[in-house]
Amino acid sequence: MSRANFTTVLQQELDRLDAAAISKRHERTIEDFTADPAPKGIINGKPYGIFNSNDYLGLRHHATLKSADHAASQKYGTGPGAVRFISGSLRVYTELEAAIAKFHGRQAGMLFSSAFAANLAVLFSFIKGQSKDSLVSGNTLVVSDELNHRSIIDGIRLGNLSSEQKAIFPHMQGDALRAVLQENLGKFDRVLVVTDGVFSMLGEIQNLAVLRKIVDEFDEQFPEGVWLIVDDCHGVAACGATGRGAEEVSGAQADILVGTFGKGFGADGGYIVADQVVIDSLRESSATYIYSNSVSPGTAGAALAAVQLVDSTEGKALVAKSQASVAWFKQAMQAAGFTFAADSQHPIQPLWIGDAAKAQALTKALFEQGYMVTSINYPVVAAGKDEIRIQISAAHTQEDLEAFVAACVSAGKSLGLVS
Ligand SMILES: Cc1ncc(COP(=O)(O)O)c(C=O)c1O
């Protein structure tokens, strides 16, 4: 009977989430895609324009990536077989790691099954090392931007730090970070300052030049220094003149950069780039690398093709197109009376709603007009800060954008959001 009691609790919890309009499990099934420049998803036989994907450059349907995926799986098989320290590294993995390190101007790169896994790995490893006899002390202070991604939060939680060892600085406020470092002088061996490069819910780009300067000011004052760790999953292959993300926009580099191949690059898998010694040590200490498979060879092949493509003339044109589309969309929506939750220059455009039920109603109204967008609500954003996260792709044509804005206006009017 005890298990029956718990399943009752689980059902009640699901009902509670549904009643509060914040449940996430009612996922739509996409059966197929159309052959449009920005392929529409077919759901129950009907095409839907996609404005809620992280595929910022429209690469996931690109013929070059598909054939690279096919070629790599023909050559290496469909799965990795085992983790790399047991069964060896497939050449496509090492080529991908070299390519992504070069793309970011770093000594070395390391591939993970996801960026979530990469964040868990780097935070846990740098907080305390992996085993009791590790030479890496656990006397670490971690300082994190208050709006950091869940994978960073969970990485910090894994370190099981005391409350003195954790500090959260107000979103993008460098002065507050400086104050935390000042207060903690003499108390810790090393400090990890960790931030998103682009904040996934608002599209805001962290000012890495400000953080870099503060981190460098304090570096000499802790025995093992102050490390800037940046997760730029949404920035890479999305913003910056050549798609190098927040680092390129702000003109400053992280000590350790985490990225994903699963968003702008149109493939899948996470990565870290850094100095060789950092990557070598992560290969010894990252549980999510040592005890968990890599992405499939086909996916790594597609990711490698994506890195090469983003760096080509075609890739640069896609980044430029994305930036022009974002500027046009933002201006058209503001002219129609909509407000954004942040002034984002990134393909993430957060439409301000401020109420979970209204956000859900707008999402539904747009779906009825043939568009997929996603309402974002608690706990992903604070309660009352509900938004519709719209994501523009370089593959959207001007006609796609105009038709989508028209649909937003008509749905917005019917719900009284704009007049
Ligand atoms: C900032 C940030 N970091 C990490 C991740 C995780 O990326 P992946 O899907 O590669 O695990 C995401 C995706 O939601 C993200 O937005």
What's the order of the H and E elements?
HEEEHHHEHEHEHEHEHEEHHHHEHEEEH
Structural class: alpha/beta
Q: Tell me the major beta sheet.
A: 7 strands, mixed
Described by its quaternary structure, the protein is single chain
Count of individual helical segments:
15
Q: Strand order, main sheet: write it out.
A: 4-10-9-8-7-5-6
Binned strand content: 15-25%
> What's the average pLDDT?
96
What are the low-pLDDT stretches, counting only 5+ consecutive residues below 50?
A: none
What percentage of residues falls in helices of 4 or more residues? 40-55%
Q: Kindly state the number of beta strands.
A: 14
What's the end-to-end separation, in Å? 56 Å
Report Rg: 22 Å
Bound ligands, named by name, code or SMILES: pyridoxal-5'-phosphate
User: What sort of overall outline do the alpha carbons produce when their principal axes are compared?
Assistant: globular
Explain the overall architecture.
The protein is an alpha/beta fold and 419 residues long. 43% of the residues lie in helices and 15% in strands. It is built from 15 helices and 14 strands. The protein has helices spanning 2-19, 63-76, 84-87, 91-103, 115-128, 150-158, 174-183, 208-219, 246-250, 276-285, 287-290, 297-310, 313-335, 356-368, 398-414, and strands spanning 32-33, 41-43, 46-50, 108-112, 140-145, 166-169, 190-196, 226-231, 256-260, 270-274, 348-352, 371-372, 374-376, 387-391. A seven-stranded mixed beta sheet has the order 4-10-9-8-7-5-6, with helices on both faces. It has a four-stranded mixed beta sheet with strand order 1-2-3-12. Strand 2 and strand 3 form a beta hairpin. Helix 2 (63-76) runs antiparallel to helix 12, helix 4 (91-103) runs parallel beside helix 12 and helix 5 runs parallel beside helix 6. The radius of gyration is 22 Å and the shape is globular. The termini are far apart. The model has no long low-confidence stretch (mean pLDDT 96). The structure holds pyridoxal-5'-phosphate (PLP). Pyridoxal-5'-phosphate binds at residues 114-116, 149, 151, 196, 200, 231, 233-234, 260, 262, 270.
